[in-house]
């Protein structure tokens, strides 16, 4: 297996008309995306600001270089988008940006968990603050990641290509009784998916269809379970 095949599951998969029929999706047009970038950009910015609030013990070195560097790249992406640069390149950079932020957040969670298991002393409020910040940061970052991955991203490409296979099966995609005419998912839908996955530790009414989002949702669920089950529970016991 060559490198391209090994990482092929990370790429968007194009659908034919037959694929759409076999999947029970009503129309090819129903798979399109054309939602504004601003909600995702704001969510990413908030996540970076939350990272700055983490205690220094939960970051490698100073806590500001990473979020500042990512904020600079984010601003550059906004400027490039307004200038009409290629949507495909913007999306690739944006996904890489979010993945780096997710890795940093998970690292902070690992440091906090290690700190607790090693018997570190801290007030209950301190532990709760760290847990809530990490939990909230992951909620926003995974929402942005799902939003960028599904159906080829929030902005349609100008190239005449086949539709992208969806990563999520929304109820509105299979039953027109639940969908307004011309319904397409927006950032709020992906934020809801992130919230339900992070609180229920499993999918609810929106099902993952691809290996990549199943893997991401599994990581998010495990991180949320650790945050709630280990860190917050320990903090509450200290407060008690």
Give an account of the 3D structure:
The N terminus is likely disordered. Helix 5 runs parallel beside helix 8. This protein is an all-alpha fold and 240 residues long. The protein has one domain. It is built from eight helices and two strands, in the order H-H-H-H-H-H-E-H-E-H.
In short:
Helices cover 60% and strands 2% of the residues. The chain has 240 residues and is mainly α. The protein has one domain (19-239).
Number of strands: 2
Terminal Cα span: 55 Å
Largest sheet: 2 strands, antiparallel
Write down the secondary-structure element order. HHHHHHEHEH
C-alpha Rg (nearest Å)? 19 Å
Proportion of strand residues: under 5%
Descriptive tags:
240 residues; mainly alpha; two-stranded antiparallel ribbon; 60% helix
Describe how the helices and strands are arranged:
Layout: H1 3-6, H2 17-22, H3 38-52, H4 65-82, H5 87-117, H6 124-149, E1 168-169, H7 187-200, E2 207-208, H8 211-239
Antiparallel strand pairs: 1-2
């Amino acid at each position: 297996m060559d490198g391209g095949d090994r990482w092929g599951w990370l790429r968007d998969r194009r659908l034919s008309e037959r694929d759409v029929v076999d999947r029970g999706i009503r129309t090819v047009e129903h798979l399109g995306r054309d939602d504004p970038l601003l909600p995702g950009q704001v969510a990413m910015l908030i996540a970076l600001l939350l990272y700055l609030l983490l205690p220094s013990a939960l970051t490698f070195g100073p806590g500001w270089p990473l979020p500042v560097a990512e904020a600079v790249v984010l601003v550059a992406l906004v400027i490039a988008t307004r200038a009409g640069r290629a949507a495909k390149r913007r999306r690739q950079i944006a996904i890489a940006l979010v993945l780096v932020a997710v890795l940093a957040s998970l690292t902070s969670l690992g440091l906090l968990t290690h700190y607790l298991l090693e018997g570190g002393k801290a007030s209950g409020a301190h532990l709760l603050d760290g847990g809530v910040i990490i939990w909230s940061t992951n909620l926003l970052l995974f929402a942005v990641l799902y939003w960028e991955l599904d159906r080829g991203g929030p902005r349609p490409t100008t190239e005449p290509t086949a539709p992208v296979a969806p990563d999520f099966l929304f109820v509105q995609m299979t039953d027109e009784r639940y969908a307004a005419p011309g319904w397409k998912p927006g950032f709020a839908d992906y934020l809801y998916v992130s919230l339900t996955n992070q609180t229920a530790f499993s999918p609810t009414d929106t099902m993952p269809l691809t290996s990549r989002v199943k893997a991401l949702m599994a990581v998010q669920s495990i991180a949320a379970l650790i945050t709630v089950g280990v860190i917050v529970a320990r903090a509450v016991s200290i407060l008690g």
